[in-house]
Design goal:
445 residues; 28% helix; 11 helices; alpha+beta; 19 strands; 5-stranded mixed barrel; 28% strand; homodimer
Chain lengths: 445, 445
C-alpha cells in the first residue's frame, strides 16, 4: 500500500534563482510565452509563476531539435545551461541555452489576442474582462492581482500583530446592515433572506467575544447604476475593535495598517510595482478635517456650489484630495464627523452635536476608500435610534443581544480592496483592479 | 488641524504578560466574566481577548470601594498590583489586587444563561446557536473558533511558502461547478445567476496565470436534508496547482499542509488546545487505498453489504477510518480512484481504466474532509466528456478558454474548514464548529 509523507520536493528552478546556477544545467517549467525567430537561433520566452525568463534555442547547443508542434502557449519543461547576459539597459541577467524541451501540453488554438507584449495593447476593457482567462496571462495584468494579494496580506498581517482575531462570517443573512434598496434577495427554502452588504452585525457581536476582529471577504450591493467606481460584489477588508478611547483609535489603526501595507509591497512585491510603474504614496501623517470644514473649503476655495449638504459628491472627494495634496503633500485625507442623517443606524452620534456622528471616511487619490467610526454600545441608545428611524427592533433581536448583555465602547471600518488597488495603481475604472467584476451588465466569466 | 500618524500605542497589559510585572502596578481591560463574593473579599474574573485573569477586590488593597453598579458583563479598566499565587494544581500564576475599577459600559440585563463556567453546561445546541452573540463569550466556545483561525492560517502560510498565490473569486456565478440541484438561484437584475458551489472554474483558469493558487472562502450548497455533517454555507479551503506529475503531488501538498497546521496549532494555539482538551493526531505518513479495494475490505473484513457501488455511505467512511487506525495507526486515510460516474465532469479519467478517475478523498476520524484530484487539461478531451454528460458546451465558453489556449497538467482539492475543525476537536455535529451555521431551518443570527 502507498503512503504519502507530505515532504514537498523543491520544484523546478524559478528565474530569480538562476544566478546561483551560472554555467550549470537547470530545469524550468512554464508556458511558452513568446517565440521570436532570428537568423540561426530563436528567443523563447518562458512564463513561470511570477516571472518571465529568456531561453535561447540554437542547434549548436545540443542534439535537441525544435519541431513545429512546439508553439506558443505550450506548457513545457525546459532543460538548459544558465549563462550570464545583459538586458537592454546593460544590467546583468541570466538566460538559458536550451538543451531539451519536453512538451507537457499543447493549446487547441493560437491566442485570439496578443497577450505576450509588455501590456495588452489596444484591448478595450470590455474585451479584456470577457477574455479574463487569457488576458490575465499578460504579465502586467497578472501583476495587478499579485499586488492586490499583497495589500490584503499586509492588512491581515498588521492586524494579527495587533492581537486581532480573523473571523469568517455568513454571507447569507437575515437582514442587511446598511439598509436601503441595494440588497440582493434570495429564496432560501421559501424564506426571504439576503446577501450580506457588510459583516457589520457579526463584527460587532464578536467584539464581545475577541475584542478585536477582522475579516477579508466578499460583500454584495445591488447597485443599479453602472459607474467606474461601483461593483456589485467586492472584497471588503473590515475590522472592529473594542475598548477604544475614541474613534481616533480606529483611524490610527488604519493608518498603521496602510503604512505596513506599503512597506510590505516595497519589500515583497517590488517586481510587480516596477512592472506596473506604480507611484507609491508616502505616509508620515494623514491630515484630518471635519466634514463641515471640508464643505467650507469646497465653497470658499474651490468656488463650488453645494447641492448635497449631507454627503460628498464624487467631484468633491476629488477636490478634497487635491486640497490634501497641495496643502499637506498627502495622498490621503481623513474626513470626520459626517452628518448623522447619512450614516447608518449603528453610528454613534457626537455627544457635542448629535446632528453629526463620530465617524470618518478616508479619501485616497480622489476617492473614498474607507468608511468607519465609533458604534453605539449602549442598548437603550441603540434601540432609541432604531425606533427614530422607523426600524422594527424585533427583527434585530439577535444583533441586539450584543448590546443588551454588555458591549464595550468600540468602532471599526470597512476598506474596499478593489478601490484601494485601483487608486494605488492609478486606474480610472475599478474593473481594472477586479479579476472577475460583477456589475449590472456582467456576471461572466 | 489634526494629524494621524498610525503609531499604535501598546494597549492594556494581557494576562500572559503579568509575570514581567510581578509586584508592579498594571492596567488591564476586559469584561467582568465572573464575580465570586467571599468573606471580606471577592474574586473578580476578567475576560480579555484570549484569556481570563483572576483579580481580587478587598477594601484593604486601596481606597477604592466597590459599588452595586459594577456587575458581571460590565466592560472595565482595572488597575492593580500584580502578585504571584498558585492555581488549583499548585502551578505558579499571577493575579491582580484591585486598586481601581473604571466602568466603561454596563449591560442592560444580566445574562439569560450561564456563560462563565468552564463550559456551557446543559445548554442544548439549538439554544447555543440561537444565542451565539453571548454563548461565544464562553471561553471554551470561543476557543473553538480561535483554533479554526489557526487551521486556516496554517493552510495559507504553508501554501504561500510553497509559491501559491492567494486569490479571491466571485461568489455570484454564471454556472455551478458541481451541477446538480443543490445550487442557490438568485435574481440578478432579471438574469438568473447562482451562488458559487466551489471556486473550481476560477481556480483552474488561474492555474494558467499563476500556476499555483489557493482560496479560503465561502461556498454555498442548497442541501435540502438536515444532517449533522452538512451546512448550506461553509468555508472551503481550496487549492489548485499546475505542472503536476500526477495527482499524488496534490495529496503530498495536502499532507504537508496538514502537518504544518498541526505544528502551528501546537506552537501558537496551545492555550486553546488545552482548554478544549484536544487529542491531536500525529501524521508521519498517510496510507492510500483504492476505492475498489476499500469496498472489498468493507465487504470482506466488516461484512457489510454494499448498496452504493459508486460512492461511500457515511458508515463506510467510518469503517475505513477504523481500518486506517487499526492497520496503520493513522487518523487519516486517502481513498483514490473513485468511479468516474460520481465525479464531476472536469475530473481526469484514469487512462488505465476510464471507469475510474485520478481522484481522491481524504477521510479523517470517520468523515470525508477533502475531495480532490487531477483535472482534464486537454480541450478536446474536456469537451468530449461534457458532451457525453449532456452538458451544453456553449454555456462554458469562458471556462473552456483555459483549456483552448493552453492548460498545463494540473489538479487540486477542496478542504472543508468546519469539518476539519469538527473532527479535530471531536464534535459529533458540524454546527459546533461553525460560528453562525446556515441550514435548512436556520439563517439567524
Amino acid at each position: 500500500m502507498d503512503r504519502i509523507d507530505g515532504i514537498i520536493q523543491k520544484g523546478a528552478v524559478e528565474p530569480d534563482e538562476l544566478a546561483a546556477h551560472e554555467n550549470g544545467i537547470v530545469t524550468i517549467e512554464g508556458f511558452i510565452h513568446r517565440i521570436r525567430e532570428m537568423t540561426g537561433f530563436s528567443f523563447v520566452i518562458i512564463r513561470t509563476k511570477r516571472d518571465v525568463v529568456q531561453c535561447i534555442y540554437a542547434p549548436e547547443f545540443s542534439d535537441f531539435r525544435w519541431n513545429e508542434n512546439i508553439v506558443e502557449n505550450c506548457s513545457v519543461k525546459i532543460t538548459g545551461k544558465v549563462v550570464a547576459s545583459q538586458d537592454a539597459k546593460g544590467n546583468k541577467r541570466y538566460e538559458i541555452q536550451i538543451h531539451n524541451v519536453e512538451v507537457l501540453s499543447t493549446p487547441k488554438e493560437p491566442m485570439p489576442i496578443v497577450i505576450n507584449k509588455k501590456q495588452l495593447d489596444n484591448v478595450p476593457l470590455d474585451t479584456n474582462l470577457t477574455m479574463r482567462p487569457i488576458t490575465l496571462r499578460n504579465p502586467k495584468e497578472r501583476a495587478i492581482f499579485k499586488v492586490q494579494e499583497g495589500i490584503a496580506r499586509g492588512f491581515r498581517e498588521f492586524l494579527m500583530q495587533n492581537e486581532f482575531t480573523e473571523i469568517r462570517t455568513p454571507k447569507i443573512v437575515f437582514a442587511g446592515a446598511e439598509g436601503g434598496a441595494n440588497i440582493f434577495k434570495l429564496d432560501y427554502f421559501g424564506k426571504k433572506v439576503y446577501l450580506t452588504q457588510s459583516p457589520q452585525f457579526y463584527k460587532q457581536m464578536l467584539v464581545g467575544v475577541y475584542e478585536r476582529v477582522f475579516e477579508i471577504g466578499p460583500v454584495f450591493r445591488a447597485e443599479h447604476h453602472d459607474t467606474s467606481r461601483h461593483l456589485n460584489e467586492y472584497i471588503s477588508m473590515d475590522f472592529e475593535m473594542g475598548f477604544i478611547n475614541s474613534f481616533y483609535d480606529i483611524m490610527n489603526m488604519e493608518t498603521g495598517a496602510l503604512k505596513y501595507i506599503l512597506e510590505l509591497l516595497k519589500k515583497e512585491y517590488s517586481k510587480e510595482l516596477e512592472l506596473l510603474q506604480v507611484k507609491m504614496p508616502e505616509i508620515t501623517e494623514i491630515p484630518v478635517i471635519r466634514f463641515k470644514d471640508a464643505k467650507d473649503i469646497i465653497v470658499n476655495k474651490y468656488k463650488k456650489k453645494i447641492t448635497d449638504f449631507n454627503d460628498f459628491e464624487p467631484e468633491e472627494e476629488q477636490l478634497m484630495c487635491d486640497y490634501a495634496k497641495k496643502q499637506f503633500n498627502s495622498d490621503f485625507i481623513f474626513v470626520t464627523h459626517y452628518p448623522s442623517k447619512k450614516r447608518p443606524f449603528y453610528a454613534m452620534d457626537d455627544p457635542e452635536d448629535p446632528e453629526y456622528t463620530l465617524s470618518f471616511d478616508l479619501l485616497f487619490r480622489g476617492m473614498e476608500i474607507t468608511t468607519g467610526g465609533q458604534r453605539i454600545h449602549d442598548y437603550d441608545m441603540q434601540v432609541e435610534k432604531m425606533k427614530s428611524r422607523g426600524m422594527k427592533v424585533e427583527d434585530f433581536e439577535s444583533y441586539l443581544m450584543f448590546h443588551k448583555y454588555g458591549a464595550p465602547p468600540h468602532g471599526g471600518l470597512g476598506l474596499g480592496l478593489e478601490r484601494l488597488t485601483m487608486n494605488l495603481l492609478g486606474f480610472k475604472n475599478v474593473r481594472n483592479a477586479t479579476m472577475f467584476p460583477r456589475d449590472i451588465n456582467r456576471v461572466t466569466p
